[in-house]
Fold this sequence. Notes:
This protein is mainly alpha-helical. Helix 1 (2-15) runs parallel beside helix 3 (28-112). The chain has four helices and no strands.
Amino acid sequence: xxxxxxxxxxxxxxxxxxxxxxxxxxxxxxxxxxxxxxxxxxxxxxxxxxxxxxxxxxxxxxxxxxxxxxxxxxxxxxxxxxxxxxxxxxxxxxxxxxxxxxxxxxxxxxxxxxxxxxxxxxxxxxxx
Length: 128
């Protein structure tokens, strides 16, 4: 009976490093106490891993939310920049249209201006 308890505790020792004393002990009471301690230590380690994994998940979610917010801010900035650039382009086009209109006005003024008359010969003689 003690050999079966030792073998069962040795199977526990494969998962827990502190149960090496179990293999050297032959009494049934020590094997029971070591098996209890090994089960406690394994349960505490598993609960700790669950806590750390849930914390990792929370941190990942926070990082994802921060990245999404940064992406949204960058998109808004790009849209604002594009809107300002479109407005500047519209203003440049309005300025070009005003310049074309000024050129048309100058052209009409040139067309309406009378041609200069050639000097008359009689005036040139009288001045002499």
